[in-house]
């Protein structure tokens, strides 16, 4: 059978000389889920932008149904039945779901917008493709997973035969991923074709029929999903064997951080977490498991000093943290890798050297009499760039010029440049490629072996299972289960507690909490 | 730092190119306006382009403007780098001018201390006036844009009232004070022109602001707060202190500009509405200079030239004064907007096609 969509030796050089695509081939058959995987900077996004008409290729050809096509802009691509859902949605938050879906091609009744028909059409589409979403509420009030469905509906409303999903799972919680996969299967069952860009290999293997692997702007090859394993795929992506496995802690040390009867509230007074009792020992990683918004992030923020403690206490080596400022907590040995590197963890407009000392402006090595020691700053930056292999133009370059993985390494480098006593980590490898993930994991376990007590939160269960020595599950602001990590513990088990489907008996929980 | 040079030079050349293109377009528009309104467009356009250089006196006018534009540009750059949108420079200029004048007219005014003490008084007055909206924002959440704009009106009207009712020589009906004693007025560098101490002060201030921003930890904190307030909070930087202090220090420079105004050779006294809205043009200077203090004097030099050229065109030729304002506004619009050239894509496509079509016949042969 002739492929539905083909890209043949596509080449694309960006102004500035970046060779983003260099002889890329992609062949997608009708009715399949075709995954495109590769590290950050492998050229996946560029290829998708070319397929959707946002960028034009310098070389090569795109064929649709065997006929060469040329998309001057996304409008062209949409007219040819291609739809794309970006990682960052393009929705109008104050408009209702159905308004967002039909925006730009509204059904009309004479000259007026036919709302009834729009609602009916959206309902029909969402039933047909099992993308359950209420057409009436404003999009801004919906959770991310549902917003994504609205984006998919938008493409389907415009009769997309081929749907490109750009890292669709990056923003989703595990059960939302499952729901997305149900929808993807429904789409394929009804003859649509899905191109799926992704990072996380287990998901790719689960959902796709064929997989095209990209590396360094080239296609490495295409394989059937059932013929490969996670390891062989990872090797294809990175070009060398990589072990995404880490050594467990050799044994834990003394009690470092103790949390007692902690209660946290949001600014509007709503309780976001309560009855939190935790002990974290030096030399161990304690994983905080939970669907986002169940209190894990808030706990880390409260310990870091970015959120007030409503009730209860947090001790670090016997000192109560509540009355301490952020700087005082850092002096006690606290380090923190925040959830969102761009929003919280970095000043992207400032230089790498400046970002690397921003949390240590009271340090005599860098600041004396209120004056910056530029030499020391530069030397510090050079040594950390070397130690954490941050790929950059140099200490004087703005952090915003780095790739996501290297930005995250800047955060990690700053927080781990000195051995912390308590390390708070939230989403350490979100949107980070495999090579950098491996490096960051190694840095975390090194910090642990150096004697840090680590609190780790992540939306990626496999990351939590790989790194944690013990795990606690958060559900609706409470700790509902606790485990000592072992090979028997699976994501599925954790999942049932994360969704509140099962509960642990208090004895087991107490034992694992000690 | 050698490692910074590639990106820095690229940035400088890109930004300079952008500003120059804007100036060229603005001049083209100015030419059209002149063609439409002047009987002798050639002479008028030439006046616009060359008048500031026509005599020592006009050069003095130009340099005087450059000094003042530099100072107001620096004051705005400081608050903009902290991402505060305080518009209060004008009010600080009036307060600074008032206090400089009070010192100049006091017994100190006839002593050699007159200039430094008056400048210091002006800076303190400006700093206090800059502090108020900063404190109001940190303490009560008042929008600094609104409060600083309102404070401008208060300062202007209070100063105007004081001049009319108390400071102007009694019974003359003048709307200005008597001339200050010569000891309180900046010495001219070129005698008989406005080329005076002001430009020296402006250049020193440029260096000081650059040093504060890029060599002190306060400056780094200020810039980090400006880049990303949430990151600053996470790093343990006290954003509200930085915010208030940035607005206070910027206020001191605004106040200094007030002293440069009233003690400069252009005035040598305190007059009603003395700033002629120049203080506000610092916003333009800061935006074009991307709030980089070292770029501010260069932008002020170029913009001051056009500004003076336009004013001299208004005086010396038949181009109506209203049109001068139109041309000035167009220059501001073009230079300030982060525009990209329309049709740039079209041209590159055209050039790309051209080279491709040239290449193809070669290949065929």
Task: Provide a descriptive summary of the structure in words.
The complex is a heterodimer of chains A (514) and B (365). Helix content of chain A is 33%, strand content 25%. In chain A, helix 14 runs parallel beside helix 15 (434-449). With 514 residues, chain A is an alpha/beta fold. Chain A folds into two domains: 5-238, Rossmann fold (3-Layer(aba) Sandwich); 255-513, P-loop containing nucleotide triphosphate hydrolases (Rossmann fold), CATH 3.40.50. With 365 residues, chain B is mainly α. Chain B has a domain at 57-307: ABC transporter involved in vitamin B12 uptake, BtuC (Orthogonal Bundle). In chain B, 72% of the residues lie in helices and 0% in strands. Chain B has 14 helices and no strands. Chain B has helices at residues 5-37, 41-50, 56-81, 89-105, 114-140, 144-167, 197-215, 217-227, 229-234, 239-263, 281-288, 296-316, 321-336, 344-364. In chain B, helix 1 packs antiparallel against helix 2 and helix 3 (56-81) runs antiparallel to helix 10 (239-263). Chain B is globular, with a radius of gyration of 23 Å. The N and C termini of chain B lie far apart (52 Å). The chains are: A alpha/beta (514), B mainly alpha (365). Chain A binds chain B through residues 304-306, 325-327, 330, 336, 338, 343-351, 354, 358-359, 361, 366-367, 370-372, 374, 378, 393-398, 401, and chain B through 1, 3-4, 6-8, 214-221, 223-224, 227-228, 230-237.
Provide the fold topology.
The complex is a heterodimer of chains A (514) and B (365).
Chain A: E1 5-13, E2 19-28, E3 33-37, H1 44-51, E4 59-64, E5 67-69, H2 74-79, E6 82-85, H3 97-102, E7 108-109, E8 112-113, H4 115-128, H5 144-157, E9 162-166, H6 174-189, E10 193-198, H7 201-207, E11 210-215, E12 218-224, H8 230-238, E13 255-265, E14 271-281, E15 285-289, H9 296-304, E16 311-316, E17 319-320, H10 326-331, E18 334-337, H11 341-345, H12 352-357, E19 367-368, E20 371-372, H13 374-387, H14 404-416, E21 422-426, H15 434-449, E22 453-457, H16 461-467, E23 470-475, E24 478-484, H17 491-498, H18 506-513
Parallel strand pairs in A: 3-10, 3-11, 6-9, 9-10, 15-22, 15-23, 18-21, 21-22
Antiparallel strand pairs in A: 1-2, 1-4, 4-5, 7-8, 11-12, 13-14, 13-16, 16-17, 19-20, 23-24
Helix pairs in contact in A: 14-15
Chain B: H1 5-37, H2 41-50, H3 56-81, H4 89-105, H5 114-140, H6 144-167, H7 197-215, H8 217-227, H9 229-234, H10 239-263, H11 281-288, H12 296-316, H13 321-336, H14 344-364
Helix pairs in contact in B: 1-2, 1-13, 2-12, 3-7, 3-10, 3-11, 3-12, 4-5, 4-6, 4-10, 5-6, 5-10, 7-8, 8-10, 12-13
């Amino acid at each position: 059978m002739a492929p539905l969509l083909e890209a043949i030796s596509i080449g694309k050089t960006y102004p500035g000389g970046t060779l983003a695509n260099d002889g890329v081939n992609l062949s997608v058959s009708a009715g399949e889920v075709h995954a495109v995987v590769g590290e950050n900077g492998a050229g996946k996004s560029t290829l998708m932008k070319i397929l959707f008409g946002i960028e034009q290729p310098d070389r090569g050809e795109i064929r649709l149904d065997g006929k060469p096509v040329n998309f001057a802009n996304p409008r062209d691509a949409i007219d040819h039945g291609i739809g794309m859902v970006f990682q960052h949605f393009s929705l109008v938050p104050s408009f209702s779901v159905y308004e967002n879906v039909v925006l730009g091609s509204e059904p009309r009744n004479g000259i007026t917008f036919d709302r009834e028909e729009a609602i009916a059409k959206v309902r029909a589409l969402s039933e047909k493709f099992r993308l359950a979403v209420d057409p009436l509420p404003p999009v801004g009030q919906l959770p991310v997973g549902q917003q994504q469905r609205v984006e998919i509906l938008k493409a389907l409303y415009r009769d997309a035969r081929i749907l490109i999903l750009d890292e669709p799972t990056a923003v989703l919680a595990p059960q939302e991923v499952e729901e997305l996969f149900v929808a993807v299967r429904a789409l394929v069952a009804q003859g649509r074709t899905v191109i799926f860009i992704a990072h996380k290999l287990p998901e790719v293997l689960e959902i796709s029929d064929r997989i095209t692997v990209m590396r360094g702007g080239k296609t490495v090859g295409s394989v059937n999903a059932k013929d490969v394993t996670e390891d062989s795929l990872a090797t294809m992506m990175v070009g060398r064997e990589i072990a995404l496995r880490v050594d467990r802690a050799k044994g834990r040390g003394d009690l470092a951080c103790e949390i007692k009867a902690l209660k946290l509230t949001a600014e509007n007074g709503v309780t976001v977490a309560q009855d939190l009792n935790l002990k974290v020992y030096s030399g161990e990683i304690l994983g905080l498991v939970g669907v986002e918004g169940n209190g894990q992030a808030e706990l880390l923020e409260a310990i870091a000093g970015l959120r007030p403690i409503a009730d209860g206490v947090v001790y670090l080596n016997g000192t109560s943290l509540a009355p301490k400022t952020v700087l005082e907590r850092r002096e006690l040995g606290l380090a923190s890798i925040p959830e969102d590197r761009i929003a919280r963890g970095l000043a992207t407009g400032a230089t790498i050297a400046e970002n690397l000392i921003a949390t240590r402006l009271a340090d005599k090595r860098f600041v004396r009499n209120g004056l910056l020691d530029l030499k020391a700053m530069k030397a510090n930056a050079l040594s950390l760039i070397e130690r954490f292999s941050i790929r950059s133009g140099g200490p004087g370059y703005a952090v915003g010029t780095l790739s996501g993985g290297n930005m995250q390494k800047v955060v990690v480098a700053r927080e781990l440049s000195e051995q912390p006593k308590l390390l708070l980590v939230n989403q350490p490898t979100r949107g980070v490629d495999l090579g950098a993930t491996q490096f960051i994991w190694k840095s975390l376990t090194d910090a642990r072996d150096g004697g840090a007590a680590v609190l780790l939160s992540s939306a990626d269960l496999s990351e939590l299972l790989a790194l944690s020595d013990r795990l606690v599950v958060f559900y609706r602001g409470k700790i509902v289960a606790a485990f000592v990590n072992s090979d028997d513990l699976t994501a599925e088990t954790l999942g049932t507690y994360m969704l509140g489907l099962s509960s642990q008996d208090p004895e087991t929980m107490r034992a694992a909490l000690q | 730092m050698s490692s910074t040079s590639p990106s820095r030079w690229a940035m400088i050349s890109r930004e300079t190119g952008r500003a120059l293109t804007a100036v060229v377009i603005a001049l083209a528009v100015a030419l059209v306006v002149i063609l439409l309104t002047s009987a002798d467009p050639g002479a008028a356009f030439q006046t616009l382009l060359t008048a500031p250089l026509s005599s020592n006196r006009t050069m003095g006018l130009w340099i005087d403007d450059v000094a003042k534009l530099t100072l107001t540009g620096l004051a705005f750059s400081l608050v903009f780098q902290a991402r505060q949108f305080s518009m209060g420079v004008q009010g600080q200029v009036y307060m600074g001018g008032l206090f400089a004048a009070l010192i100049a007219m006091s017994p100190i005014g006839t002593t050699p201390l007159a200039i430094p003490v008056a400048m210091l008084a002006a800076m303190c007055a400006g700093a206090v006036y800059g502090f108020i909206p900063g404190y109001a924002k940190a303490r009560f959440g008042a929008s600094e844009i609104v409060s600083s704009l309102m404070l401008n009106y208060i300062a202007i009207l209070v100063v105007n009232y004081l001049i009319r009712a108390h400071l102007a020589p009694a019974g003359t009906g003048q709307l200005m004070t008597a001339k200050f004693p010569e000891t309180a007025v900046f010495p001219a560098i070129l005698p008989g022109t406005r080329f005076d101490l002001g430009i020296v002060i402006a250049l020193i201030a440029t260096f000081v602001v650059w040093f504060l921003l890029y060599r002190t930890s306060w400056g780094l904190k200020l810039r980090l707060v400006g880049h990303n307030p949430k990151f600053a909070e996470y790093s343990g930087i006290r954003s509200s202190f930085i915010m208030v202090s940035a607005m206070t220090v910027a206020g001191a420079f605004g106040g200094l500009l007030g002293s440069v105004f009233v003690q400069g050779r252009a005035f040598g006294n305190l007059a009603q509405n003395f700033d002629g809205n120049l203080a506000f043009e610092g916003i333009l200077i800061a935006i074009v200079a991307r709030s980089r203090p070292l770029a501010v004097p260069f932008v002020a030099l170029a913009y001051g030239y056009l500004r003076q050229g336009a004013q001299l065109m208004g005086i010396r030729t038949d181009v109506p004064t209203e049109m001068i304002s139109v041309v000035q506004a167009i220059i501001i619009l073009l230079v300030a907007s982060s525009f990209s050239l329309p049709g740039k894509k079209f041209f590159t496509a055209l050039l790309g096609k051209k080279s491709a079509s040239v290449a193809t016949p070669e290949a065929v042969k």
